Every structure is written in structure tokens, then in C-alpha cells.
Automatic annotation (TrEMBL), chains A, B:
Residues 88-232 form the GST C-terminal domain. It comes from Sphingomonas jatrophae. SUPFAM superfamilies: GST C-terminal domain-like (SSF47616), Thioredoxin-like (SSF52833). This is Glutathione S-transferase. Keywords: Transferase. PROSITE patterns: GST_CTER, GST_NTER. One of its GO terms (biological process) is glutathione metabolic process. It comes from the Bacteria.
Amino acid sequence: MSAYELWYWPGIPGRGEFVRLALEAGRIPYRDVALEPDAVAALQQELVTPRDHPPLAPPWLRAEGMTIAQTANILLFLGERHGLAPDELAGRLWVNQVQLTIMDMAAEAHNVHHPVSVALTYEEQAAEAASAAHAFRTDRIPKFLHWFERVLLHNQPWLAGARWSYADLSLWHLLEGLAFAFPQRFAGVARDCPRLIQLHARVAALPELADYLGSNRCQAFGDGLFRHYPELDAA
Amino acid sequence: MSAYELWYWPGIPGRGEFVRLALEAGRIPYRDVALEPDAVAALQQELVTPRDHPPLAPPWLRAEGMTIAQTANILLFLGERHGLAPDELAGRLWVNQVQLTIMDMAAEAHNVHHPVSVALTYEEQAAEAASAAHAFRTDRIPKFLHWFERVLLHNQPWLAGARWSYADLSLWHLLEGLAFAFPQRFAGVARDCPRLIQLHARVAALPELADYLGSNRCQAFGDGLFRHYPELDAA
């Protein structure tokens, strides 16, 4: 019986993956509810169960009697408790700041294929998505990636210095997601971002992640936060 | 000379307001750069100034030699340093979780009038905005507000119990913004949320906020995060 439980939808990496990577690289034992047969029903039941600190949506982590929701908040807890971020104030806030910026970009990447409503399918908003994708490719991908590159000019080899933090893991996953969803555009902008590409390679090579990334628990992107619709990509 | 500096765009409350309310209610002295004549030029200059921990966008807070960006991250700092959130782990994480949920809803409220691109005007994406507004009114306003109401069923009189936290102030501002932008729809959903309306009144009556709310430093919403376009509202 693991001390921690990660609750997230099965079948996609989604926002749960940012938490999963920290648990895996931190070698923290956890029960992964998404791997269990009745995961969807269990999540739906939990979402309506009365509790003092209810989550609005997955992911949430059960830990030490707490139900902790919001991806960046879960990571803040794991960072403090398991040394996956600096201890001192400035470093801890900096890693949280970078993580929140990663989550902002992930939300924007999702808005590209669902600009009107999460309650409609992509096909029902494909015209609006085409406009949103143009803006995301033209303005937002360069804005965010150039900012990360600038950050790595002053923070080496990792985002918070000498040791990787949960934000490095999340940034790797964000880059993986962008390269999956917008392969042509990502390749173009990545040419201007050598430090970012080095960081990406450095995370992929972490011994702490080797088992997980080589396992069948590590899921394909599919129809989650990051989606590949060829018509939404361009150089 | 104040110890702290709040950097945010002038002319709108925007995301800066969530920080400003915490500084004001916490009676924390600060320099408000938005009130200074050359604020825009100063912000633009700071955004390109090389530094170890650069902000991607305002707001950011200068404090104790740090440049802290991301609204919820600034509030996390202020909460810890100035007792504007519980000290103990579970309460601190809970307040951060609620704050992140507030920021999610604020971002969605912004996406309603800018569903395609922040680089285009509202008028250039008014048709897409009409579709986004329908979904926001129908699905998202009830989803978020009913969740806050459910939270207040278990957390009284404030979100984290006996004393107000920065998340109570932010929730008040979120409700003000929704009532401004979507007056008809907000009024309808608010009828199902008596605890939320009580919390709203309780924050508005805080003696710690009286000076600020009665001053001309407290700005109208205007064309910021929350915007009132009558064609985007409906009962």
C-alpha cells in the first residue's frame, strides 16, 4: 500500500503527467488510479464526494490525509517534501513561477484545439481552432520558448541551478507536447533555442526517469492537452 | 521609500489587482508603479532587462531583492511572509489551490473576449467571442461558482476558516469582475450561491479594505481581464 495516490483520468498523459514525472523521477511510491479498471467511475464519484477541500478537477494527490489539487500546487508540495525544488525561499518561488508559466502555456496549447468550449468536440470548433492555431504558432510559441531560452542563459545547467527540479521535468513534457502537436512550427522555433534543446535532452537522459520512460505506463499523447491535427500546424 | 514594489500595467485592475488587494488589506507599504507617469515605458524596459529570474509578463513584485512573478506565486509569498494565509501546510496548500482555481476562471473570462488571439482586438474576433461567451455562460460560470459555493459549505466564514486569506480577497475581485462583465448571467447563478454572496459582502465590508476601496487608486474594470460587452451577456 503506497502512501500517496495520484488521481487523474486514464488514457491520456494530460495535466496528470506533470505530477507523474515528479513522482517517478523522485522515486516516490504512489498508487496510480488511472491504471485501475474503474478509474473513470472512481474519479467521478470522488468529484462529488463532500469534503473540506474538494478538487474542482483532476489531477489531485492524496498525501498525508490531504487531498491536494491544482497541478502546480501538487508539485509545490512534492518539491518541498521530497527535495524536488530548492529549499530556500527565492529558489522555491522561482521554480513555482516557472511551473506556473509552463501551465499557462499548456492551457494555451489546449485552447488552440478548443477555443470556444471544452464541452464541444474539436470538429465542432475547427474553424475557430484554425484561427487560434495561427496566432499560437505566430505569437505565442516564440514568446514562451524565447523566454525559456532566456531563462536558461542565466540558469545552468537546470532551471534552478545545480540540480534538476520538478519544473525541469515539466518543461521537458511541455516541449514534448509542443513537438507532438506542432512539429513543423516547433522545429523552426527550436533552432533559435539551443539551451532549451539541451535541457530537453538532459531531462530525457535522466537515470531517474529511465525506467518510467521505457515502461508501458508512459502513455502516448492521444487526444489530451496536446493534440496533433496536421491542419493546425505549419512552419 | 517602500520596501516592496508592485509592477503592473497602468489603467486597468487586471491581474495586478489580486496582488494589490492583498498588499492593501495586509497594510503592507508598497510602491505602485502603475500610478507613475512613465509606467508603460518602465515596464517595457524591465521586461527586456537581463536578470536571473525574469518575469514573462506583469504583475511582478520586487521584494527582498527578489523579482517574483506569476500572480498566485506573488500571493504565496505575501501569504507566508505577512500571515495572509494559514501557516500550517494543509491550509497553505488549500489557499494556493483555491487561488489557482480563481486564476483559471479569470483566464477563461479573458478568453471569452479574446478566444483567438491576444494580438487581435475584440472586434476582430467578435464572432468567435460570441460562441465562447455562450459556452462560458452555460457551462463554466455555473461549474466554477457552484464549486466555490460547495467549498463555502465546509469552510466558514472564510475560505480557510476563521480568518480571511488572500484567496478571499481574490474571490471577491473575481465575483466583482464577473458581475461587471456578465451582469445578467451572474445574477441568475448567484441566486443559487447564497454563501458566495455572503462572502462577497463580507470582503467588501472588511475594515482593512475601506481606505483603498474608497480611494481613486481603486480603478474601474475598463478594457482589462473582465470586460462588459452587452452582446456577450444573457440570462
